[in-house]
Automatic annotation (TrEMBL):
Residues 1-27 are annotated as: Disordered. The keyword DNA-binding applies. The keyword Nucleus does not apply. Residues 25-85 form the HTH tetR-type domain. Keywords: DNA-binding. InterPro entries: Homeodomain-like_sf, HTH-type_TetR-like_transc_reg, HTH_TetR, Tet_transcr_reg_TetR-rel_C_sf. Residues 48-67 bind DNA. This is TetR family transcriptional regulator. Pfam families: TetR_N.
Amino acid sequence: MKKAASPDTSPAVKRTRGRPAQGASVGRDKLLRNARKTFAKRGYDATSVREIARESGVDAALLAHHFGSKDALWEAVVEQIAEHTGPMVAATASLRASALGARERVERALEIYIDKVFNEPDIGLFFATAATEEGERFDLLVERIVRPYHDVLVPLLSDAGKRKALKVVDADVLFFMLLNGISKTVAYGHVLQVFSALPKQQAKYKRVVLQTALGMLA
Protein backbone atom coordinates (compact mmCIF):
# COMPACT_ATOMS: atom_id res chain seq x y z
CA MET A 1 0.00 0.00 0.00
CA LYS A 2 1.30 3.45 -0.98
CA LYS A 3 2.26 5.74 1.93
CA ALA A 4 0.64 9.14 2.16
CA ALA A 5 3.05 12.06 1.75
CA SER A 6 4.12 13.64 5.02
CA PRO A 7 3.20 17.29 5.65
CA ASP A 8 6.88 18.28 5.46
CA THR A 9 7.15 17.06 1.85
CA SER A 10 3.95 18.69 0.58
CA PRO A 11 4.56 21.10 -2.31
CA ALA A 12 4.56 24.81 -1.44
CA VAL A 13 1.54 26.84 -2.44
CA LYS A 14 2.41 28.88 -5.50
CA ARG A 15 2.28 32.65 -4.88
CA THR A 16 -0.07 34.54 -7.15
CA ARG A 17 1.58 37.47 -8.90
CA GLY A 18 0.83 40.76 -7.16
CA ARG A 19 -0.38 39.08 -3.97
CA PRO A 20 1.74 39.26 -0.79
CA ALA A 21 3.36 36.02 0.36
CA GLN A 22 1.32 33.96 2.81
CA GLY A 23 1.71 35.38 6.31
CA ALA A 24 3.10 38.72 5.08
CA SER A 25 1.30 41.71 6.54
CA VAL A 26 1.33 45.46 6.17
CA GLY A 27 -0.11 47.38 9.09
CA ARG A 28 -3.14 49.62 8.83
CA ASP A 29 -1.09 52.72 9.63
CA LYS A 30 1.35 51.98 6.81
CA LEU A 31 -1.48 51.42 4.36
CA LEU A 32 -2.99 54.77 5.33
CA ARG A 33 0.34 56.57 4.93
CA ASN A 34 0.74 55.12 1.44
CA ALA A 35 -2.83 56.05 0.59
CA ARG A 36 -2.23 59.58 1.90
CA LYS A 37 0.79 60.00 -0.36
CA THR A 38 -1.02 58.68 -3.41
CA PHE A 39 -4.15 60.77 -2.83
CA ALA A 40 -1.90 63.80 -2.22
CA LYS A 41 -0.12 63.35 -5.55
CA ARG A 42 -3.10 62.53 -7.74
CA GLY A 43 -6.26 63.61 -5.96
CA TYR A 44 -9.24 61.42 -5.12
CA ASP A 45 -10.69 60.86 -8.60
CA ALA A 46 -7.37 60.04 -10.27
CA THR A 47 -6.36 57.54 -7.57
CA SER A 48 -7.40 53.90 -7.64
CA VAL A 49 -7.38 51.39 -4.79
CA ARG A 50 -5.29 49.08 -6.96
CA GLU A 51 -2.67 51.80 -7.36
CA ILE A 52 -2.46 52.27 -3.58
CA ALA A 53 -2.23 48.51 -3.13
CA ARG A 54 0.58 48.33 -5.68
CA GLU A 55 2.47 51.13 -3.91
CA SER A 56 2.05 49.23 -0.64
CA GLY A 57 3.13 45.87 -2.10
CA VAL A 58 -0.15 44.18 -1.17
CA ASP A 59 -3.23 42.85 -2.88
CA ALA A 60 -6.18 45.21 -3.29
CA ALA A 61 -8.24 42.69 -1.31
CA LEU A 62 -6.27 43.63 1.82
CA LEU A 63 -7.33 47.27 1.47
CA ALA A 64 -10.90 46.16 0.94
CA HIS A 65 -10.65 44.02 4.07
CA HIS A 66 -9.39 46.93 6.19
CA PHE A 67 -11.43 49.78 4.77
CA GLY A 68 -14.16 48.48 2.49
CA SER A 69 -14.57 51.16 -0.15
CA LYS A 70 -12.39 53.88 -1.68
CA ASP A 71 -14.56 56.49 0.07
CA ALA A 72 -13.99 54.82 3.43
CA LEU A 73 -10.25 54.66 2.75
CA TRP A 74 -10.13 58.41 1.96
CA GLU A 75 -12.09 59.18 5.13
CA ALA A 76 -9.69 57.02 7.15
CA VAL A 77 -6.78 59.02 5.69
CA VAL A 78 -8.43 62.26 6.84
CA GLU A 79 -8.92 60.81 10.32
CA GLN A 80 -5.27 59.72 10.44
CA ILE A 81 -4.15 63.24 9.49
CA ALA A 82 -6.44 64.71 12.17
CA GLU A 83 -4.82 62.40 14.71
CA HIS A 84 -1.29 63.29 13.57
CA THR A 85 -1.98 67.04 13.62
CA GLY A 86 -3.74 66.91 17.00
CA PRO A 87 -0.55 67.59 19.02
CA MET A 88 0.26 70.54 16.75
CA VAL A 89 -3.21 72.00 17.31
CA ALA A 90 -2.94 71.49 21.07
CA ALA A 91 0.52 73.08 21.23
CA THR A 92 -0.71 76.08 19.25
CA ALA A 93 -3.77 76.45 21.47
CA SER A 94 -1.57 76.49 24.57
CA LEU A 95 0.30 79.54 23.28
CA ARG A 96 -2.65 81.80 24.11
CA ALA A 97 -1.94 81.28 27.81
CA SER A 98 1.83 81.54 27.50
CA ALA A 99 3.99 84.40 28.81
CA LEU A 100 5.25 85.13 25.30
CA GLY A 101 4.44 88.42 23.61
CA ALA A 102 1.91 88.59 20.76
CA ARG A 103 4.55 88.44 18.02
CA GLU A 104 6.52 85.68 19.74
CA ARG A 105 3.37 83.55 20.02
CA VAL A 106 2.87 83.72 16.26
CA GLU A 107 6.55 83.00 15.66
CA ARG A 108 6.38 79.93 17.88
CA ALA A 109 3.14 78.79 16.21
CA LEU A 110 4.77 79.00 12.79
CA GLU A 111 7.81 77.09 14.05
CA ILE A 112 5.51 74.30 15.23
CA TYR A 113 3.66 74.24 11.90
CA ILE A 114 6.85 74.28 9.83
CA ASP A 115 8.28 71.40 11.88
CA LYS A 116 5.15 69.35 11.13
CA VAL A 117 5.22 70.15 7.41
CA PHE A 118 8.90 69.27 7.10
CA ASN A 119 8.41 66.01 9.02
CA GLU A 120 5.33 65.00 6.99
CA PRO A 121 5.27 67.06 3.78
CA ASP A 122 2.57 64.94 2.17
CA ILE A 123 0.08 66.18 4.79
CA GLY A 124 0.34 69.68 3.36
CA LEU A 125 0.26 68.31 -0.17
CA PHE A 126 -2.78 66.17 0.65
CA PHE A 127 -4.66 69.23 1.83
CA ALA A 128 -3.66 71.25 -1.24
CA THR A 129 -4.97 68.50 -3.52
CA ALA A 130 -8.02 67.55 -1.48
CA ALA A 131 -9.09 71.19 -1.14
CA THR A 132 -10.44 70.93 -4.68
CA GLU A 133 -13.01 68.42 -3.45
CA GLU A 134 -16.67 69.30 -3.09
CA GLY A 135 -19.59 68.01 -1.06
CA GLU A 136 -19.15 65.58 1.82
CA ARG A 137 -15.42 65.01 1.29
CA PHE A 138 -14.76 68.75 1.40
CA ASP A 139 -16.93 69.15 4.51
CA LEU A 140 -15.07 66.36 6.28
CA LEU A 141 -11.71 67.85 5.34
CA VAL A 142 -12.69 71.25 6.73
CA GLU A 143 -14.24 69.99 9.97
CA ARG A 144 -11.58 67.43 10.89
CA ILE A 145 -8.39 69.16 9.72
CA VAL A 146 -8.78 72.81 8.77
CA ARG A 147 -11.20 74.22 11.34
CA PRO A 148 -9.45 72.88 14.46
CA TYR A 149 -6.19 74.54 13.42
CA HIS A 150 -7.92 77.70 12.15
CA ASP A 151 -9.62 78.15 15.51
CA VAL A 152 -6.34 78.15 17.45
CA LEU A 153 -4.05 80.05 15.05
CA VAL A 154 -6.35 82.84 13.86
CA PRO A 155 -6.81 84.27 17.40
CA LEU A 156 -3.01 84.53 17.71
CA LEU A 157 -2.80 86.35 14.38
CA SER A 158 -5.70 88.66 15.30
CA ASP A 159 -4.19 89.50 18.67
CA ALA A 160 -0.80 90.28 17.13
CA GLY A 161 -2.51 92.55 14.61
CA LYS A 162 -4.53 94.42 17.24
CA ARG A 163 -1.41 94.99 19.33
CA LYS A 164 0.48 96.24 16.24
CA ALA A 165 3.03 93.49 16.83
CA LEU A 166 2.56 92.23 13.26
CA LYS A 167 0.98 93.59 10.11
CA VAL A 168 -2.33 91.74 9.85
CA VAL A 169 -4.90 93.06 7.37
CA ASP A 170 -7.25 90.08 7.68
CA ALA A 171 -6.45 87.16 9.98
CA ASP A 172 -8.49 84.59 8.03
CA VAL A 173 -6.86 85.48 4.70
CA LEU A 174 -3.45 85.49 6.37
CA PHE A 175 -4.14 82.06 7.89
CA PHE A 176 -4.75 80.50 4.48
CA MET A 177 -1.90 82.34 2.79
CA LEU A 178 0.55 81.17 5.43
CA LEU A 179 -0.65 77.56 5.48
CA ASN A 180 -0.80 77.15 1.73
CA GLY A 181 2.39 79.09 1.07
CA ILE A 182 4.43 77.15 3.61
CA SER A 183 3.02 73.70 2.84
CA LYS A 184 3.41 74.05 -0.93
CA THR A 185 6.90 75.54 -0.66
CA VAL A 186 7.98 72.49 1.34
CA ALA A 187 5.99 69.88 -0.61
CA TYR A 188 7.26 71.21 -3.95
CA GLY A 189 10.85 71.56 -2.80
CA HIS A 190 11.90 69.50 -5.82
CA VAL A 191 10.71 72.35 -8.06
CA LEU A 192 12.56 74.98 -6.02
CA GLN A 193 15.62 72.74 -6.25
CA VAL A 194 15.85 73.59 -9.96
CA PHE A 195 16.64 77.18 -8.95
CA SER A 196 18.13 76.85 -5.47
CA ALA A 197 20.26 74.42 -3.45
CA LEU A 198 18.26 75.14 -0.27
CA PRO A 199 15.98 72.05 -0.42
CA LYS A 200 19.11 69.88 -0.17
CA GLN A 201 20.01 71.56 3.14
CA GLN A 202 16.97 70.79 5.25
CA ALA A 203 17.97 72.61 8.45
CA LYS A 204 18.85 75.78 6.56
CA TYR A 205 15.79 75.41 4.31
CA LYS A 206 13.55 75.20 7.37
CA ARG A 207 15.11 78.35 8.87
CA VAL A 208 14.72 80.30 5.64
CA VAL A 209 11.06 79.26 5.27
CA LEU A 210 10.36 80.49 8.81
CA GLN A 211 12.29 83.73 8.35
CA THR A 212 10.55 84.41 5.05
CA ALA A 213 7.10 83.79 6.54
CA LEU A 214 7.86 86.12 9.46
CA GLY A 215 9.33 88.70 7.06
CA MET A 216 6.00 88.82 5.25
CA LEU A 217 4.38 89.86 8.54
CA ALA A 218 6.90 92.53 9.54
